[in-house]
Specification:
Number of strands: 7
Number of helices: 12
CATH topology of the domain at 357-478: Heat Shock Protein 90
Distance between the termini: 29 Å
């Protein structure tokens, strides 16, 4: 669907290029207007945007900017075909039946009646693509037909024909005004209706005729109805388009905010790990001189420098950590409906040590106390992981169990942990829920946080439904330091 005519956009091209004064040749300067041009003023930069803006506004007013009411009108082929057929048969009916109607009412010959009716039919077809020129053509043809009929009414003494708007001309102009109102802005429709009313007043009230039935007031009332219907349909379409655009923007902003919140949460946790290592470095640098007999001055100086740098880095880390925690001391991602399985950053001691694999058993016990039947299977040696890997593994299992509590109450859960030479493999699978699932108050950030943690370490997370109607979350986290991670992909809803 194309953009709405309410918000026309200029086309990029040569008109939008900005040419600096230095790039203008002497021949180009000679072929200008002949007046002196201030070398510090860029005329292209001034006139280009203005010209594009005027052209865009003119195109919108003429109904030439694509919109939802522009051809092909719909994404459905059958609806497009139906629209074209209705308009085509209406134009054909006006051209055929209108010729006979004009001949009978106004006494036109075929050479006069046929072109008058054909012009109205052509205006209807033209209104599909160029509504303003089509309206001008229809109104001009209607005025010419009325003036030609005026002579016949006075000389041939016809039996009170409908004038100045005969039935076929009136129907054709109604269709054109309707298509016009669907495409142009409301003030353009009002201007067209006012011009039609003025022409009707001049022909019927100013020029006048003898022995006729006036149709001006009735015609204007019907034209007003067609204009109101068109404006209402167009306004409804514009409102729906703006709502869809706003919904899309809101969803993108929500996804971006979710991503930033998850990264901030991960950063707060990793700051604790880094701060611990920096503290260890500082202490070791302070103790090292006492472990060596007669240490040299160079050694003492280097160790003192290491200690001072570590303390400075630790101070900066604490400042950053304080800022991150002060922004959100109570995590919004906390699982309100998951007793015993709290999210990171919650609880009475937000500065407590970060969890690791050794605390998984306690996490599983809390989950069992919340009403889930949890079975754990573990293989391999659980040692040799960095604190960041252990923290991420714990958080992934914790979030997976929280999702089971939230979305599959009463389900059976199996947690598989495999300690492989290259890293740790996690799998949390659950069966079909045993009772109806209540509406979840969660914020839907769970899978996003899992993927962010795994990507940070060079691992991966996969979540998918199982064949038995449950859900399976698998993850692999490498043991060693991850390479530089690629650019993060757009967030996907959990």
């Amino acid at each position: 669907m194309s953009a709405d005519p309410e918000n026309p956009t200029g086309r990029s091209g040569d008109a939008g290029r900005v040419t600096s004064p230095a790039s203008r040749t002497s021949s180009e300067a000679e072929h200008d207007t002949g007046n002196e041009v201030d070398p510090g003023v860029d005329t292209d930069a001034e006139t280009g945007p203005v010209a594009r803006s005027r052209a865009a506004r003119l195109g919108a007013w003429l109904g030439e900017v694509p919109s939802s009411q522009s051809p092909p009108f719909s994404k459905y082929r059958w609806l497009r075909l139906l629209t074209y057929l209705v308009v085509f048969y209406l134009a054909l009916g006006i051209a055929g039946a209108g010729t006979e109607e004009l001949s009978d009412d106004y006494g036109f010959t075929l050479a006069v009646a046929l072109p008058s009716a054909l012009l109205q039919g052509l205006a209807i077809l033209l209104a599909l693509w160029r509504p303003v020129p089509a309206w001008a053509l229809s109104l001009a043809a209607a005025v010419a037909t009325a003036l030609l009929a005026r002579q016949n009414i006075a000389t041939m003494r016809l039996s009170s024909p409908n004038w100045p708007w005969s039935p076929p001309v009136l129907i054709a102009h109604m269709a054109v005004i309707l298509l016009l109102a669907l495409r142009v802005r409301p003030r353009g429709t009002v201007a067209a209706f006012a011009a039609t009313a003025l022409a009707t007043f001049v022909v019927e009230g100013g020029i006048g005729a003898l022995y006729y039935s006036p149709t001006g007031p009735a015609a204007l009332a019907l034209f007003a109805v067609a204009a109101v219907i068109g404006v209402a349909l167009r306004s409804r379409s514009v409102a729906r388009t703006e709502l869809v655009q706003q919904t899309t923007i809101t969803a993108e902003e929500r996804a971006r905010r979710t991503l930033l919140e998850e990264r901030s949460r991960i950063a707060r946790e990793l700051h604790d790990v880094v701060a611990h290592h920096m503290s260890v470095i500082s202490i070791q640098a302070q103790v090292a001189p006492h472990l060596v007999e007669n240490p040299s001055d160079e050694l003492k100086e280097n160790l003192t420098g290491i200690r001072n740098n570590a303390l400075e880095a630790l101070t900066e880390l604490r400042r950053v950590l304080g800022v991150l925690r002060s922004e959100s001391p109570d995590e919004p991602e906390a699982v309100e409906d998951s007793p015993g399985v709290s999210a990171p950053g919650t609880g009475a001691a937000p500065h407590a040590p970060q969890p690791n694999l050794a605390r998984l058993d306690s996490l599983l016990e809390n989950t069992r106390a919340a009403g889930l039947d949890v079975v754990k299977a573990e293989e391999g040696d659980p040692h040799g992981y960095s604190p960041g890997v252990e923290l991420s593994a714990y958080r992934i299992v914790q979030e997976a169990l929280s999702n089971v509590l939230r979305h599959a109450p009463g389900a059976k859960v199996r947690v598989d942990i495999a300690h492989l030479p290259g890293g740790i493999y996690l799998s949390v699978s659950n069966s079909r829920p045993s009772r109806p699932v209540p509406p979840s108050p969660g914020s839907g950030h769970g899978l996003l946080g899992m993927r962010e943690r795994a990507a940070m370490l060079g691992g991966q997370v996969e979540a998918k439904p199982s064949r038995t109607g449950g859900f399976v979350v698998t993850a692999f986290l490498p043991r060693g330091a991850a390479p530089e991670p690629p650019e993060p992909s757009p967030p996907s809803p959990s």
